[in-house]
Every structure is written in C-alpha cells, then in structure tokens.
Amino acid sequence: MLQVRDADTNDSSTILSLDGVADASEKTITFTKSAGDMKTVASGLYVYDAEIKTNSGGVVTTLLHGTFKINEDVSITA
Asked: What phi and psi, each to the nearest 5 degrees, are found at residue 31?
C-alpha cells in the first residue's frame, strides 16, 4: 500500500491511498491512479510511504518513503 499525506505527523491527513500490484518475477510493485482522481489533489508538497504486508505473520515493512511536489497545471487549454 502506498499512502500520500500532506504531513508525516498526522494520521488524518491521508490524501491518496493506493494498492500496489506486485510482479515477483520482475521484482517490481506498480502503483497507479487515474487522471480523474489526481485532478482532485491540490498542488503542493506531499509525503509518502510504501509498505508491504507479508501473508505469513502479518509483518508490515516500509519499502520506501519520501516527498514529492504536485505542480499547478501550467498549460492553457481552449
């Protein structure tokens, strides 16, 4: 699961929550969100973490974490 928040100190600030699709042979996990869903997210600086829960024992492991910025739309459409 990948969670996106506007702060890393507040559990109630979840902006997006995405389930991943794992490919064990490629050793990858893919997270996707539709353009329509992303349109609802305001521009700004966000924090994220991606965690995986093993089936055996239910151990949760953080795979990666960091920050990213969503810029305002700069294109002009007619």
From this structure: -115, 130
d(CA 52, CA 21): 11
- Token pair of 67, please? 């920050």
Using a 10 angstrom Cβ sphere, with 0-12 exposed, 13-18 middle and 19 or more buried, the burial of residue 61 is exposed
Position 19: which residue type? D
Residue type, 9: T
The pLDDT assigned to 12 comes to 67
pLDDT digits (tens, 9 = 90+) for 7-57: 888 776 888 888 888 888 988 889 898 888 888 888 999 999 988 887 777
Q: Provide the residue type at 38 as one letter.
A: M
Q: Which residues contact 41 (CB under 8 A, 6 or more apart)?
A: 15, 16, 70
Tell me the C-alpha distance between 54 and 62, whole Å: 11
